[in-house]
Amino acid sequence: xxxxxxxxxxxxxxxxxxxxxxxxxxxxxxxxxxxxxxxxxxxxxxxxxxxxxxxxxxxxxxxxxxxxxxxxxxxxxxxxxxxxxxxxxxxxxxxxxxxxxxxxxxxxxxxxxxxxxxxxxxxxxxxxxxxxxxxxxxxxxxxxxxxxxxxxxxxxxxxxxxxxxxxxxxxxxxxxxxxxxxxxxxxxxxxxxxxxxxxxxxxxxxxxxxxxxxxxxxxxxxxxxxxxxxxxxxxxxxxxxxxxxxxxxxxx
Length: 252
Ligand code: CIR
Known about the structure:
Elements: E1 4-8, H1 28-44, E2 48-52, E3 68-70, E4 75-77, H2 88-97, E5 102-104, E6 116-119, E7 122-127, H3 133-144, E8 149-154, H4 161-164, E9 165-169, E10 172-175, E11 189-192, E12 204-206, E13 209-213, H5 217-224, E14 230-233, H6 236-240, E15 250-251
Parallel strand pairs: 1-2, 4-5, 7-8, 10-11, 13-14
Antiparallel strand pairs: 1-15, 3-4, 6-7, 9-10, 12-13
Residues 17-19, 60, 63, 65-66, 82, 85, 114, 159-160, 163, 241-243, 246-247 line the site of citrulline.
């Protein structure tokens, strides 16, 4: 069970963050409303929210998931793969130090939390434009001490591994078609999202409830078939900045 979540308010400069999406300029007012609804959903699932202030000069810093990997045992502060985001991680050190012992990804390693999916004691690490082999292997060594086994998975499309693959409970992953035949994922049950709903691959499982983005009816039907509660949240503005449900919190 998760009991805590760390979030950061999007700042007024959030539209200056990195993005590859061609969905237009996001709206700040709507972003704040959607972020608030997201925090409320986590609260209603029993999590105590620690809401950080916007981080000046780091418009993407509300995507807090990328700067740390938090397990029961410790927090690993990452070294973000995008130059423009490097530095965000330092602000998370005092915050997480209050909850867990810390470890760090160091140069030449780069790693974004968005590339790390933990299912029980298995850690899947996407090798992407943000996460390199050195970063993945540092994380693997740190977590192996605590009994985790890691596997790397190349990420050829999408920003992060979890943009395309997320855990929906038990031994089941939800994923985009691009990952459906991957040998590294063959021992999981796989629910494959239709290609016109790729974005909906990014769901978030919190204490037995699946949070899923609004606007993807075919994926919603598939998730409802799992017989667990499903909550739909509008993430239209984060999506314009290449972000989604997993990116906006650290849960533990
Ligand atoms: C970036 O490009 O880094 C941000 N605009 C989006 C980060 C999304 N984070 C995530 O998927 N974990």
